[in-house]
Amino acid sequence: MQPGVLLLLMSYMGVPLLAHKLNHEKAIVALNSLLLRSTRTFPPNPSVHIALRLSEKHNLHEEQNYLHRLKTDLRRILSRAEQGTRPFTGLVALHLLALRASCQDLQEKRQALLYLKKKLSAERNHTIYHQVPLTNYYQYSLGVLALCVNDIRIDHSVLSGLVPHDHHHHHHHSADTSAMVVLALKCVQESTVPGRDVWMYSTERRLKAQQAVNKLMEKIQRWWKSNGEVGNIYSTPLVLQALLATGDTERWLKGKINLLNKSKQGAFQNPMALSQLLPVLYRKTYLDIGQMDCRSKSDELRWVDLEPQEPETRSQSGFVYISVKGKNLVTTYTTRVPLLNQMSLLDVLQAASRNDTNFTFETEQTLWGPFLTSVNHVPGQDDTNTYWRLISGAHTPLIEGIQDYFPKPGEHILLQLSSF
Ligand code: B12
To answer: CA Rg, the chain, in Å?
Structure first.
């Protein structure tokens, strides 16, 4: 095409392009208000605070209140952690990122930093003896990222646990986890000693980090789908952070537009999912937290009242079929539940246990909502690497949890005890 023709074409397209851009901005601010609103109706979540702090529009009063609640929560978590129940590596890491994003430097922060350093050593030791961390690589890298963003120097041993150093060590990370490892190592690579103009880590360390980042990004590029997704729509926001952090703005933009469209279809109602999405819509990554100075910003974000949800008119009739399979793939239980309007999978399971006292299940509250921990008295267990996997039809794993997924009439849902 002649350059002149291209120019002409572009000037014609310029007007709708601008309109698109304004629409995008409006949509992003609407999502920002939606996240702000979630602070009133959901338990405090440090990931939500991080996203509110990283965004362009603010409501400083609401953010301050939320920070206060988070601190109370953190004190509770740390005192529970002292009783040595289970590791809170990822949760404490998110709190430390949230505190840094509000430029808070207090007693609870020092205590949390100490705790996280200890836990990361424990994660590392666990990888030496058991090939996997105490929690998982996602939390391990989140922990490294949180220390790094808070300018804390990380032990060599802990870092080398994230960098596969020989050929026997292949980590098969998911897209989410790969992205988080990239962010952690990118932070390490770029860290300077506070107040001085020198690198925090040796040339050799930084080179190793760089090489590991390159490997992971190659993998992410191989996984890249033409619609701009990697993994699924809930891993893509973190992948877009990794792409931004490594300078691939072209893929970031493509992914962002796709996710904005998905959010218009209601895919990011869950505040945790939205909190992972919002930063990349504003072209921000968790690495930017380290540069925040918390000087007064815009203070104009209001939380909009939601337009009343359209009442679901189509009457859904039919059944949802539930089956339960143990590890040996033997079906141990089946039932069917009449599907009423707007029933989540959680509602369906509750109805099933009301209809039949032989069917029981338990859940545990997490940042993503209720996690299915046990079915018919059989628990999924971290120490044996098992969990209750949610599957639709014969083999389509759900990409949402029991509270967020809405089964369709006639759908078969399989609860399958699986390994991870
Ligand atoms: C590790 C991991 C798991 C591990 C957790 C156990 C372990 N010891 O590692 C296992 C393999 C068990 C798992 C299971 C599932 N997971 Co998962 N998981 C993750 C991952 C990679 C990291 C979570 C984490 O450690 N967070 C750090 C800490 C600080 O946060 P936390 O909330 O306290 O962490 C706990 C919960 O997140 C919980 N958890 C893990 N996954 C899920 C999913 C749901 C829906 C809920 C409610 C809780 C939950 O386990 C964490 C450790 O205790 C995230 C990726 C991400 N982007 O966040 C996906 C992610 C959260 N999981 C996801 C999904 C869909 C599932 C499953 C529903 C898959 C399925 N078809 O069965 C199941 C849960 C089923 C059930 N029983 O309720 C989605 C959620 C998307 C959404 N919109 O809801 C994510 C975002 C991955 C993705 N991109 O698809 N998961």
So the answer is: 23
Find the DSSP H helices in 191-235. Answer: 203-223
CATH (one of 1.10.730.10, 1.10.10.570, 2.60.120.260, 1.50.10.20) for 3-291: 1.50.10.20
Mean pLDDT of the chain: 91
Residue 274 CB less than 6 A away from ligand 1: no
**Ligand 1 centroid from CA 368, angstroms:** 7
Question: How large is the average pLDDT for residues 84-113?
Answer: 93
Pairing of strands 319-325, 412-419: parallel
Residue 1 pLDDT > 50: no
User: Is residue 121 packed enough to be buried (19+ CB in 10 Å), middle (13-18) or exposed (0-12)?
Assistant: middle
Residue 281 has pLDDT above 50, yes or no: yes
Lowest mean pLDDT, pick from 72-76, 80-84, 127-131, 203-207:
80-84
Cβ–ligand 1 distance for 39 under 6 Å, the answer no
CA dihedral 199, 203, 208, 209 (to 10 degrees): 10
Confirm or reject: Cβ of 403 under 6 Å from ligand 1: no
Q: According to the model, what pLDDT value does residue 110 have?
A: 94
The pick from 77, 91, 371 for probing ligand 1's pocket by mutation, whose C-beta has the most ligand atoms within 8 angstroms, reads: 371
Start and end residues for every CATH 2.170.130.30 domain found in the chain = 319-419
Cβ partners under 8 Å of residue 20, min gap 6: none
Cα distances (Å, whole numbers) of residue 196 to 191, 192, 200, 294: 11, 7, 10, 21
Mean pLDDT of 174-197: 96
CB 262 within 8 A of CB 27: no
- This prediction has a pTM of 0.93
Architecture of domain 319-419: Beta Complex (2.170)
pLDDT of residue 370: 98
